[in-house]
Specification:
Elements: H1 2-5, H2 33-49, H3 53-64, H4 69-76, H5 80-97, E1 101-104, E2 110-113
Antiparallel strand pairs: 1-2
Helix pairs in contact: 3-5, 4-5
């Protein structure tokens, strides 16, 4: 009966917790923008990697590396029009894989809203 009456001593996991320091509260329902940005970045990387090789090369050269269509045409030995066309098609495929909903503008051109 002696052991049942004795309350075991409790050692705090945080050494400052037993000294009357205020406890840090963590809001688990808080929307973390960093996590959302990471998920968006992963989805974008996956969408780019799913592109056909020609579209992916031109998209990366133009959007990531900053090359112009004339420079891309010289590098890949194709026409400027081909570079523009493949970039446009690559953007359409990326938007489609990211879940964009196509709409048309007053001029009849496709307009995309993501989200």
């Amino acid at each position: 009966m002696h052991f049942r009456k004795k309350v075991p001593s409790q050692i705090p996991l945080n050494p400052q917790e037993g000294q009357g320091a205020p406890r840090e509260s963590i809001a688990l329902s808080h929307d973390d923008g960093r996590l959302r940005g990471t998920a968006d970045r992963i989805a974008l990387i996956r969408a780019i990697s799913d592109l056909p090789p020609g579209y992916r090369n031109i998209f990366l050269l133009h959007a990531v590396k900053g090359f112009g269509h004339g420079e891309i045409a010289r590098l890949l030995n194709c026409s400027v029009g081909n570079s523009k066309s493949q970039l446009y098609k690559a953007r359409l495929k990326i938007r489609a894989s990211l879940g964009a909903s196509p709409k048309t503008s007053a001029a009849g051109e496709p307009v995309f809203e993501i989200g």
